[in-house]
Amino acid sequence: MSHPQPAETKTLRLPSDQETSGRTLGEEELALLAQVIHSGTLTSTKGTFVKALERGFAELLGLEHVSACSSGTSALHTAIAAIDPEPGDEIVTSPITDMGALAPILYQGAIPVFADVDPHTCNVMAATIEPCLSARTRAIVVTHLFGNPCDMGPIMALARARNIPVIEDCAQAFLARHDGAPVGTIGALGCFSLQQGKHITTGEGGLVSTGDPALARRAFLFINKAWGYGDPQPDHYFLALNCRMSELQGAVAVAQLPKLEWIVRKRIELAAQMTAALAGLVGIETPWVDPKNVHTYWKYCLRVDGGVVPGGAVGLARLLAERGISSAPRYIQKPAFMCEVFQKQRTFGRSRFPFTLARPEALDYNHDRFRGAFEALDRILVLPWNERYTEEHVSYIATSIHQALAQLRRTAP
Questions:
Q1: pLDDT, tens only, 71-82
Q2: What is the rounded CA–CA span in Å between residue 321 and residue 165?
Q3: Pick the CATH number of 27-259 from 3.40.50.620, 3.90.226.10, 3.40.50.880, 3.40.640.10
């Protein structure tokens, strides 16, 4: 691909994962949906498609156990419930994540304890997790943000030394790998999302992976109100929800699954083209990927140095929007601990539970503790990305970035 030059280009409409232009939905999904409708069985407790999805995804990961559920949030909730924390136990996690990965911790009566991140990858690290550990730490949640795996070797060594289970949030990281191992197979449990904008989609939906039969049993039960389907004398064994995936979602996912490897390969190829096209741009850093990792690019995330680029990520995003490119400066507007649910401890009525059980140190949200997170959010610019892009689309985005940078520098005071 030729290196883009800062010359005016005609606006090009980009495929979007929010509708058909950027999705791989088609006749295969329609055919399986028709089978479900004609069968009249829409519940996964009696149907076959959700079970087929679980088997297929487990085979893809090389694990024994996968449970499907109703959303990515449900997947995280199921994993936390499988770990079964005591009220007031602590779960170390990232401040750069979706609330769907944090609310389940609170719903299970545990305390999210936030670890700082590497400002270049936005991922938690062993070095930032270790100071957050205490005698009350029950689990560590690592988020493979944007499809770029965390540095799992040191994290797992730290966790094993303390006998702490690791939950991998793989919502954005289908088929990503660390040191040859698929994410979702490295920790005790892995959680995936099938939400509209993920690598494959059922609109909403989730998957929980594990190699541990006891955790798999707890996950299966939690998804099913703790009712022991298939047991000789089933009962509701503990407090749990209905987080089941429907057969309609299962059918779409079964049709999507064979497309996943192509989707991931295409995203990686396109990302390599983008990285080459932006090489050498002053003030712009392309995604840093550890040589041990395979990054599967849920989104393509730039770092913009506001000291070099006038207006920083926000200024660049404004000019890209004029060219029809809907990028997201900061990704999230603030670290999760700055949201009202944490700052004002708004949980169950006026009880403030489970914050009332927390150690003061676990609720220390002093900004000096999160310099990496604040630096990361100040600089990142998240570009839209999907497998329906062509070389022309990638060239258009890269050229637009070159043009926008040139314009920002020309008009800077």
A1: 999 999 999 999
A2: 43
A3: 3.40.640.10
